[in-house]
Amino acid sequence: METIIVYVDDADYAQLLLQTAVQAPQASQAHWVLVGCAPRITHRVSRFVSNRSRENWRNKWAERLFQDCVPVLQAHGAQVTTVLARGPLPELLQTLQAQYGAQSQVVDMRRPKLQTPDAAAPAVPSPLHKLAGTLAGIGALWTVLIGETLAA
Q: Model-level pTM?
């Protein structure tokens, strides 16, 4: 039996992908291992939350995620196992491949993080912007000089 390891972090996004993936001819005979990848808690928030509270939140989050994703696969007769990622994914993948076989197929169905071009690279002013700034500065200087000349 083929094993398919799937990384999931958003139920709505993953349901669409799972519905198309389970349509494949051999997908219903495969063993699906859903790995829930919980969102990271920022450093600022984690200072005020205990480890126990963080684990409770992660478990509830995973329960809701799996409640939405597992029925999609089970409706087609697939065997499903759920795993919650509690550490780095490469280490978890090694553990899962040791458990289910090294030939397991790995699919990443996590929602892609959108990056805007402005956030990815710092804005560098173009020569045209530098010219516009220079001309504006010269215009302001002329205005001040002419204003003082006329006032005198």
A: 0.70
